[in-house]
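ARCHIVE CARD
SHELF: 3
SLOT: left
DATA:
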Amino acid sequence: MRNEQGFDEWAETYDESVSKNEQEESYPFAGYHTVLQTIYKTVTTGKAPAVLDIGFGTGVLTKKLYDAGCRISGIDFSRKMIDTAQPKMPKATLVQADFSKGVPPQLAGQTYDDIISTYAFHHLTDEQKAVFLRELLQTLNPGGRILIGDVMFPTDKERQACREKSGSTWDENEHYLDIASFTKQFPEASFHRISFCAGILTFTKDEK
């Protein structure tokens, strides 16, 4: 996982680098804004939902949800990311924490209508993802959803093809989901493909 200094240094250029990469329709950010827009539309179908954003970065999506009336809590590893995002959302509860260690104590006992994460879950190994998701499912209100938008692939074959095509730009320190393998642990999950290297994985809690 990238250290705090690395995230702090990236905070100043993150949005610019994402935009350039998406315009080129290349790995890793091809489909980035469509991922964000899809999650935004899904979350805002409800009335003023309580939302937890994991790895919210500079707050591109989080700010839109905040402006739409969502009650926002967020976790991010970088103090600079939080310092960038907090003035945009003064009433949001933004916590600096390493989410590879689970939900931080500051948010213990809170429940949410939607838990979202965009381009952050790849910092966790698949084993860490599974453990964290099981914890997050316990914090959902009935009928609540977890929406993970990230670099992910329907199969390992497609993941490897992207790796080969990307060459030196492929990040060996990031852990991209192979949906076919991962969802064997979570058969209730659904996958919506956005681009050749991006999609949204959704978990919904029973309303009972």
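SLOT: right
DATA:
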Amino acid sequence: MGALWIAHVTVTDPEAYGKYAELAGPAIAKHGGTFVARGGRFVQLEGRERPRNVVARFPSVEAAVDCYNSPEYQEALSHARGASERELLVVETSE
């Protein structure tokens, strides 16, 4: 089964977060991830609103978690820490 990686983000340091974005895209692609949505228009119906929402599709939950734990993504993530407030989850799809 496939999986979706869903991130809700408030960027607090655009310059540092830009470096994260530059490195995260290739790391996600390396693990079979493709972007479905990146910061587009949204309507917050419940919960805490974050101005940036990102969804990536992966071949499996394991591939998404492997991506997160990979050295490439952890390097990218080092630029997001302190430059953003984030929630990130991976959910298995029913497809």
